[in-house]
C-alpha cells in the first residue's frame, strides 16, 4: 500500500472504528496479587521453618540455605502448574533499559520417553544465558562468554499471562563467569546495602538503639503517548526510532492547556482499566492515571515500594502498558520526545529512605529535636547532589532524553536541589549556626463556607527543579520516560551512602570531643552547607540568569547533551565513589560507560539513516508528484488562456532541492568513521549529525505545509495526536 493511501485509509478506519466491547472489571479484592508467589502464598505452601527462613531472607537480606531453596522451588512449581504454566523463565535486566527472558519448559523426558515436570532448587537458583550476547562493555567476549542468572528472593516470582499462554517469571540478577555485574539489579542491591551500612552508623551515633535494616523507596510516575497503530505502522520513524523525525506543527497543539487532567477519551479509559487490572493481578500498586499536558499523552503513577521491587515493577509496568496497547489497537510510545513542539515524557522518581523502627528519615518533625535525623539525611542529599551532580546527569543520559531536558516541561541539565522556602531557611539558619523550630504551612482558608479548611503544605513545588524536596521525599524529575529507574536509584543510594559516611565521621569526632548531640549536628551541618550549599536553588531553573549563575558563580556543571555527561562516568571522583562503597568496580563502571556511549551513538545512527531514507523515498516523491500535478494543471490552464500563480510550485521546488542537498550533506557526514576517542565520536554526532538531521527536517516540514494533503505520505501530527 502506497504511503498516502496507507495514511488516508488509517484515518478512515480509525474514525469509523466501533467502540471496544467492555466487560465489568473485577473487584480489587478478587484479583490483587493473584498471579504473584508472595509471602502470603509461601506461608500456606511451605513448612514453618522454610517460611521463616525465606521471610528473613526477603526482609533482612540474610543468606538462604540450599534446603529451603529446594522447598521453595517445589512449592513455586506446584503453584505455577496449578495455573496452567508450562514454562518458567529467569527474567533479568541487562544494560539496555530493556527486559530479558530465557524460557525453559518444566518438562523433561524419562527413560521410557514419558514427560515429567521437573523444577528443583538448582534450576531456581541458577541459569546460564550467553553473557557476550548482551551489551557488556568488554567484560564478556565470544570466546569467554559464560554468564549466570541467579534468583533474587527479595523480588517475588509471578505468572505472566499472554495470548499464547502463561509463564512463571523468576526475577534474577545477571553476572559474568568472573563475577562482574552485567545487569542493573546487582548494583542496585549493592547500593542499598552500602546506604544501609552508612545510615546505621549515623543513627547509632544519634543514640538510636533499635535500628532495623534501611531501604530506599521508589515511586515512579510513568508518562507515555498513545497513537493508533494504523498511524504508527505508516510511520517508519515511530516504529524504529520511537519518535517522529518529521512533522509540521498542527494548527492546535497544547497552547489551550485543555488536555491536562481533562476527561479521558473513552477508548483510552478502556485501555487503562484493562492495563491496571493486569497490574493489580501482578501486585503492582497502580494508584493514579490521568491525561498529561500534551494531547495524546497520559500518566500512570504507582504507590511507592522498596526500591528493588519498585524497579522490577517499573520494568513490568512498561511491558504491560505496551503489550496491552497492542491489544487495543494502540502503540504505546515511551520515547521522551516523540513529537516536536509539545511536551515530552518523563518518569519522575520519588525517592525516600527509611526502615520499620525510625520510619521515613526524609519526613520532617515539628521540633528541632525531632528534626535532627531528618536534617542529617536531608543534608546528606544536598552534599550528594553537589558533589555528584554530573553522575546524576550521566545516569539519565540518552539520545532520547536529550530532546527533553531543558525544555519547558522538563528540568534543566544543571543539577540543583529545591528545598522549598521554609526548609531552605532552616538550612540557612544552620549555616549561621542556629536551629529554629519548624513551622507548618498553616491552614488554607479559601473564604468559602462550603469548602472545608485544610492544612497547607509547608512549601510550594518547583517544576523547574531537577531534584526537588516534596514534603517527605525527593523527586528526581529529570529521569526519562523510557529509562529503567535502577540507574538513578543506584546513583542516589550511592551518593547518599558516601555523604552519610562523611557525616558519621564528622559527627563521631564532635561527639567524642564532648559536644552535645544537637550542637554536634549543627556543627556538622554548618560545615556541610558551607561546602555544598551552592547546590540549593529555589528559583526559576529555566532562566538564563540561573544558567549563567550556576556555572560562573556556584561552580555547577551544565551538561546539555549525553555527549557532555557520559564521560563523567570515567571521572576519578566517580570511580572512587563506586569503588569505595562497593557498588561498582572500576571494570564494571567502565563497561557501563562503554555501553551507554554505544547506545547513544547507535540511537542517533538509526535516526540519521531513517531521516535519509524517509526524505528520499517518501517525502521527495510526494513533492515531485505534486509539482507534476501543478505543472500539468498550469499547462492546461495556459491552453485556455488562464495564467496561474506559480509561487507554490517555486516554493516546493526550492524546498525539495534544499532538502535533498541537506540529505546529501548528512549522508556524507555519516561516512566519517575515524575518531580519536569515543568522546570525540559522541561530540561529533551531538553537534554535527544531529544538526544536519534538523536541517533536513526544516525543509521537509515546510514541504508538508505546501504539498496537497491527499498526497502527503506520513500521518500528520493533528491526526496522530487528536484522532483516538
Topology:
Blueprint: H1 3-15, H2 28-31, E1 36-37, H3 39-45, H4 48-60, H5 66-81, E2 87-92, E3 100-105, E4 107-109, E5 115-117, H6 121-125, E6 126-127, E7 147-151, E8 157-162, E9 165-176, H7 185-205, E10 215-228, H8 229-232, H9 236-241, H10 266-281, E11 286-291, E12 297-302, E13 305-306, H11 307-327, E14 330-333, E15 347-355, E16 359-360, H12 368-394, E17 417-418, H13 421-431, E18 443-444, E19 454-455, E20 467-469, E21 474-476, H14 486-512, H15 517-532, H16 544-552, H17 562-565, H18 572-581, H19 586-639, H20 647-670, H21 678-704, H22 717-722
Parallel strand pairs: 2-9, 17-20
Antiparallel strand pairs: 1-8, 2-3, 4-5, 6-7, 7-9, 8-9, 10-12, 10-13, 10-14, 10-15, 11-12, 15-16, 15-21, 18-19, 20-21
Helix pairs in contact: 4-5, 7-14, 10-11, 12-14, 12-15, 13-15, 14-15, 14-18, 19-20, 19-21, 20-21
Which structural traits does this protein have?
724 residues; 21 strands; seven-stranded mixed sheet; Creatine Kinase, Chain A, domain 2; 4 domains; alpha+beta
Amino acid at each position: 500500500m502506497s504511503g498516502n493511501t496507507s495514511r488516508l485509509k488509517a484515518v478512515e478506519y480509525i474514525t469509523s472504528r466501533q467502540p471496544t466491547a467492555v466487560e465489568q472489571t473485577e473487584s480489587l479484592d478478587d484479583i490483587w496479587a493473584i498471579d504473584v508467589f508472595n509471602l502470603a502464598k509461601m506461608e500456606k505452601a511451605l513448612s514453618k521453618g522454610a517460611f521463616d527462613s525465606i521471610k528473613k531472607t526477603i526482609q533482612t537480606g540474610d543468606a538462604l540455605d540450599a534446603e529451603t531453596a529446594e522447598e521453595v522451588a517445589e512449592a513455586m512449581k506446584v503453584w505455577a502448574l496449578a495455573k496452567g504454566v508450562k514454562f518458567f523463565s529467569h527474567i533479568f535486566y541487562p544494560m539496555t533499559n530493556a527486559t530479558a527472558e530465557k524460557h525453559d519448559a518444566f518438562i523433561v523426558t524419562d527413560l521410557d520417553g514419558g514427560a515429567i515436570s521437573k523444577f528443583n532448587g538448582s534450576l531456581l537458583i541458577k541459569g546460564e544465558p550467553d553473557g557476550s550476547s548482551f551489551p557488556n562493555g568488554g567484560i564478556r567476549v565470544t570466546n569467554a562468554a559464560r554468564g549466570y542468572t541467579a534468583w533474587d528472593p527479595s523480588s517475588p516470582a509471578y505468572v505472566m499471562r499472554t495470548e499464547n499462554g502463561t509463564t512463571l517469571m523468576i526475577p534474577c540478577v545477571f553476572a559474568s563467569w568472573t563475577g562482574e555485574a552485567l545487569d542493573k539489579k546487582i548494583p542496585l542491591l549493592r547500593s542499598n546495602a552500602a546506604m544501609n551500612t552508612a545510615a546505621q552508623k549515623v543513627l547509632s551515633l544519634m543514640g538510636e538503639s533499635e535500628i532495623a535494616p534501611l531501604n530506599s523507596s521508589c515511586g515512579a510516575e510513568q508518562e507515555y503517548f498513545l497513537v493508533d497503530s494504523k498511524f504508527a505502522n505508516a510511520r517508519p520513524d515511530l516504529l524504529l526510532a520511537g519518535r517522529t523525525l518529521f512533522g509540521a506543527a498542527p494548527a492546535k497543539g497544547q497552547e489551550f492547556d485543555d488536555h491536562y487532567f481533562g476527561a479521558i477519551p473513552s477508548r483510552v479509559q478502556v485501555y487503562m482499566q484493562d492495563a491496571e487490572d493486569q497490574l493489580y493481578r501482578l501486585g503492582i500498586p497502580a494508584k493514579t492515571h490521568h491525561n498529561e499536558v500534551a494531547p495524546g499523552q497520559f500518566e500512570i503513577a504507582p504507590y511507592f515500594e522498596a526500591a528493588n521491587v519498585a524497579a522490577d515493577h517499573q520494568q513490568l509496568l512498561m511491558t504491560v502498558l505496551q503489550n496491552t496497547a497492542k491489544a487495543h489497537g494502540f502503540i504505546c510510545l515511551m520515547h521522551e520526545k516523540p513529537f516536536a513542539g509539545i511536551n515530552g515524557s518523563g518518569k519522575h522518581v520519588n525517592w525516600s529512605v527509611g526502615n520499620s523502627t525510625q520510619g521515613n528519615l526524609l519526613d520532617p518533625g515539628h521540633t528541632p529535636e525531632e528534626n535532627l535525623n531528618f536534617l542529617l539525611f536531608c543534608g546528606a542529599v544536598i552534599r550528594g547532589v553537589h558533589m555528584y551532580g554530573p553522575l546524576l546527569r550521566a545516569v539519565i543520559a540518552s539520545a532520547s532524553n536529550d530532546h527533553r531536558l531543558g525544555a519547558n516541561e522538563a528540568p534543566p541539565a544543571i543539577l540543583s536541589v529545591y528545598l522549598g522556602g521554609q526548609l531552605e531557611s532552616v538550612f540557612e539558619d544552620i549555616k549561621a549556626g542556629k536551629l529554629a523550630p519548624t513551622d507548618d504551612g498553616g491552614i488554607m482558608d479559601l473564604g468559602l463556607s462550603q469548602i472545608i479548611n485544610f492544612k497547607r503544605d509547608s512549601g510550594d513545588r518547583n517544576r523547574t527543579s531537577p531534584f526537588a524536596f516534596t514534603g517527605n521525599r525527593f523527586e528526581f524529575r529529570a529521569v526519562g520516560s523510557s529509562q529503567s529507574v535502577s540507574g538513578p536509584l543506584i546513583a542516589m543510594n550511592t551518593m547518599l551512602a558516601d555523604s552519610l559516611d562523611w557525616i558519621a565521621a564528622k559527627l563521631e569526632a564532635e561527639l567524642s570531643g564532648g559536644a552535645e548531640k544537637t550542637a554536634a549536628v549543627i556543627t556538622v551541618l554548618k560545615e556541610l552547607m558551607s561546602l555544598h550549599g551552592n547546590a540549593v536553588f529555589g528559583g526559576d531553573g529555566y532562566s538564563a540568569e540561573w544558567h549563567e549563575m550556576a556555572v560562573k558563580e556556584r561552580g555547577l556543571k551544565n551538561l546539555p547533551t549525553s555527549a557532555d555527561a557520559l564521560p563523567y562516568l570515567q571521572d576519578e571522583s566517580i570511580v572512587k565513589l563506586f569503588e569505595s562503597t562497593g557498588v561498582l568496580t572500576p571494570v564494571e563502571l567502565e563497561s557501563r560507560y562503554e555501553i551507554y556511549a554505544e547506545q547513544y551513538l547507535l540511537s542517533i545512527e538509526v535516526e540519521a539513516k531513517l531521516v535519509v531514507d524517509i526524505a528520499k523515498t517518501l517525502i521527495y516523491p510526494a513533492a515531485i508528484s505534486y509539482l507534476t500535478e501543478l505543472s500539468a494543471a498550469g499547462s492546461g490552464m495556459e491552453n485556455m488562456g488562464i495564467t496561474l500563480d506559480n509561487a507554490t510550485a517555486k516554493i516546493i521546488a526550492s524546498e525539495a532541492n534544499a532538502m535533498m542537498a541537506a540529505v546529501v550533506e548528512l549522508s556524507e557526514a555519516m561516512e566519517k568513521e575515524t575518531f580519536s576517542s569515543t568522546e570525540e565520536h559522541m561530540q561529533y554526532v551531538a553537534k554535527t549529525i544531529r544538526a544536519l538531521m534538523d536541517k533536513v527536517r526544516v525543509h521537509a516540514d515546510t514541504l508538508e505545509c505546501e504539498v496537497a494533503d491527499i498526497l502527503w505520505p506520513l500521518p500528520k501530527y493533528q491526526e496522530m495526536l487528536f484522532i483516538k
